[in-house]
Specification:
Helix content: 40-55%
Strand content: 15-25%
Shape: elongated
Structural class: alpha+beta
Number of domains: 2
């Protein structure tokens, strides 16, 4: 690639990065994430209410947990707002500091390309720091929301299966959770019934629910749906878990049943997304009458806001002292003196005007000839978040 081609590529990259940072420095995208999280928690509240209305036994407890989570988010929102306010103001001030050099590079002063690129790289790191602080506030709530959303999807499916239950729901008790399962009655694979394992506040129930007699195991067959057994929770004296099969891919539960019905020991595989160790805990909690699911633990982070109080000098490129090149421009713009009189080394006349024009035209291709030809005109605009380019070169 020719030197001219490489320069044009650098200019295009600088323009693209400047446009990105002009938006990113406002941190509005993080505020959008907060609003999205608040909406998602509100939707979970509605889902919990629907579960309760549908007869789900633990719906009221889950609704209460979401209310607690929402209240904690409201408290953390104050910290989030503090970070956004302080950081966005500082970032946009630093963007304004960089704008003169970036605008000069985009306006045709190619000698400023490397230093302008370095300035935006520094600013990008500062934006990432602010984003990281805001993420540390939101992440515990985002994780909790995802955990609850996954749980609610399982519970909604469980309730749908309970709605199709072929046995006596009143005798079975209030549903807590369900999963796909296979009762290892014979240990002969295809001979063992597949179906749904239900845990209620009274019993553990297995319902066979599958098509039997399929041709080649794929076509036709007859739907078989019937309750195979229902074990009162008080008769489950012990529960063990074991992973069997290739790479331990089968999640097995062993139930010791006092009274021996349907057998002294029942072996059952929980399938789908179900985990045998989680189901051990579910059964133990149901026996104690305790809620199956506890509220996710959310801890608010500690954030040092001094990063954004203006005392930090972490913005590494100061365009007003860059080898004297921009000092003359900065002084000329500030005092209103003609830039032609200052003529900082390496820039030539009209440098400050070109800088402002470069920013104003950051969304389009720069034209060096036009910049030289129109160097004495009034700057045509500024970049959002940076200083206004309203001075006129005399």
């Amino acid at each position: 690639m020719s030197s001219s081609g490489e320069t044009q590529e650098k200019i295009a990259e600088l323009r693209s990065e400047h446009n990105r940072l002009t938006t990113a420095a406002t941190l509005r995208h993080k505020q959008d994430e907060l609003r999205s999280l608040e909406r998602e928690l509100s939707e979970l509240t509605q889902t919990a209410q629907k579960l309760t209305q549908g007869g789900y036994a633990g719906g009221a407890v889950l609704s209460g947990q979401i209310q607690v989570l929402s209240a904690k988010l409201a408290q953390s929102k104050a910290l989030f707002t503090q970070v956004v306010t302080a950081a966005s103001a500082r970032l946009q001030a630093e963007l304004g500091q960089a704008n003169l050099g970036v605008g000069g590079a985009l306006g045709g002063q190619t000698s400023l390309l490397d230093s302008a690129t370095e300035a935006l790289e520094t600013l990008s790191g500062r934006v990432e720091t602010a984003e990281g602080q805001l993420d540390s506030v939101l992440e515990p709530f985002t994780s909790a929301q995802y955990e609850l959303d996954t749980l609610f999807n399982r519970l909604t499916w469980s309730q749908e299966q309970w709605g199709e239950f072929s046995g006596d729901k009143n005798a079975g008790g209030g549903l807590l959770i369900a999963c796909e399962a296979e009762w290892k009655q014979t240990g002969k694979g295809g001979d063992d019934p597949d179906g749904i394992l239900f845990l209620t506040d009274k019993a553990l129930i297995f319902e066979q629910k599958e098509k039997k007699g399929k041709t080649f195991g794929m076509f036709g067959g007859k739907m078989v749906q019937e309750v195979e057994w229902s074990i009162p929770l008080g008769q489950i004296s012990d529960v063990r878990s074991k992973n069997e099969g290739v790479f331990g891919g089968k999640d097995i539960l062993f139930l010791t049943v006092s009274g021996g019905d349907p057998a002294p020991e029942v072996k059952i595989e929980v399938k789908g997304s179900a985990d045998n160790k989680a189901w051990m805990a579910y059964i133990a909690q149901a026996k104690q009458g305790a809620p199956l699911f506890s509220a996710p633990d959310v801890v608010a982070p500690e954030i040092d806001l001094s990063e954004w109080d203006g005392s930090s000098t972490s913005f590494g490129v100061n365009f007003t002292s860059m080898g004297g090149a921009l000092a003359g421009i900065a002084a000329g713009v500030k005092s209103g003196d003609g830039v032609e009189d200052a003529k900082p080394k390496g820039l030539g006349g009209g440098g400050s005007v070109n800088a402002m024009k470069g920013l104003a035209q950051s969304g389009s291709k720069s034209n060096d000839d036009d910049d030289d030809e129109k160097g004495g005109q009034k700057p045509s605009g500024n970049v959002s978040g940076g200083p206004k380019g309203g001075q006129k070169s005399d």
